[in-house]
Amino acid sequence: MNDQLKQIYQTMKEKGFKLTPARKSMLKIFLESEQKLLNAKQIFNLVKKKSKKTNFSTVYRNLEVLTENGIVEKISYNKETKYKLRGQGSHHHFMVCTLCYKTIPLPFCPFGELETYIKSDTDFLPINHHVEIYGYCNNCRQKLEN
Amino acid sequence: MNDQLKQIYQTMKEKGFKLTPARKSMLKIFLESEQKLLNAKQIFNLVKKKSKKTNFSTVYRNLEVLTENGIVEKISYNKETKYKLRGQGSHHHFMVCTLCYKTIPLPFCPFGELETYIKSDTDFLPINHHVEIYGYCNNCRQKLEN
DNA sequence: TGTTAAATGCAAATGTTTTGCATTTAGGAG
DNA sequence: CTCCTAAATGCAAAACATTTGCATTTAACA
Fold it and tell me: Cβ of B133 and A136 within 8 Å?
């Protein structure tokens, strides 16, 4: 079994959450789906493929649990709320194609110097940050040009 | 009259939008309110104070017009959608206190080097970006410590 | 002052997310 | 392996934010 998946199962267990079919299904969906940013409806539909009897409330409740435990990240932009699996360990940001929603990780976090500056020059205490780059991926750009 | 307001009125006029009381009221709210990030409900309530007969659809429709014309910016984080007046000219980002929602502008945009990197090293075409720092402002931090 | 397109108010619809509650189930104890 | 219990689920209904259709009003300009 996939290493990342194994680790997530481990985390869930440690925190006392049950490994229900719905949850396993959702995690596999995140791991296997081509698109890494999914909204609740998409996830619901994919879960439904396996167990036709699932329900939006289950999906939402599980997204909440996964989000609160740092396994999944919730991202809102332009009305749409999407979810993605958190990379294990190293935190990073994404470039998001606004046409196909392909997500490309940024190789570094631009927050480093920024944080240094904020801490030394302001009295604001930074806790969290949110960086996203929107634009066109190579594919979509080529389509646009034709 | 405030210079920024004058300029916005000018812009609206040029684009053929009417300067209705609701719109003037909303713009003044953005300019005068202590809090610079407001959600639709807050704006609605403030508008209502002046003209008791206003309506959510008016507020939303105007927020849309203002957003589409670059006068107002729409920001979503953690479920909440908020709006703020765009700084005239220079674009900037904010540090947002997650307790009182006070917003403190960042004195520079960390996107500069990032953009350079992306353009030279990836085939992604960056169009837009979104940077926000969340944490505690000085005031709230002091309150927390007591 | 009159005309007209644009903006408004209202009520109802939409879409997403949440909740209460009865039922089912994962996972540990025995 | 079986039982027990807290946690998770499914369902229906509610809550909430946002949008829409339509009749009425109004800003802006001739």
Answer: no
* B123: nearest CA partner in chain A: A138
Grouped pLDDT means (10 residues each) for chain A, 146 residues? 86 93 96 85 94 93 91 75 72 65 65 71 75 74 70
Sign, Cα dihedral of B64, B65, B68, B71:
negative
Across the interface, whether the CB atoms of A110 and B106 are under 8 A apart is answered: no
B110 touches chain A (CB under 8 A): yes
Q: What's the pLDDT tens digit per position in B59-92?
A: 999 999 998 888 888 876 656 788 888 765 445 6
Q: Do A113 and B110 touch (CB under 8 A)?
A: yes
- Chain B residues whose CB is inside 8 A of the A124 CB are 95, 97, 104, 133, 135-138
CB of B47 closer than 8 Å to CB of B59 = yes
pLDDT at A90: 47
Whole-number Å distance between alpha carbons of B34 and B29: 9
DSSP code of B36?
S
- Tell me if A124 and B97 make a contact (CB, 8 A cut-off): yes
What are the structural domains, with CATH classification, of chain B?
1-89 (1.10.10.10), 90-146 (3.30.1490.190)
Cα separation, A84 vs A75, whole angstroms: 8
Spell out the alpha helix ranges (H) of B21-137.
21-32, 40-50, 56-68, 111-121
- pLDDT for position B140: 74
In a mutagenesis test of the B interface, which of A60, A111, A125 is the best target, namely the one with the most B β-carbons within 10 Å?
A125
pTM for the complete prediction? 0.69
Going by pLDDT thresholds of 50, 70 and 90, the confidence category of residue B33 is: confident
| Residue among A120, A73, A124 at smallest CA distance from B135 | A124
Task: Report if CB B81 to strand C is under 7 Å.
Answer: no
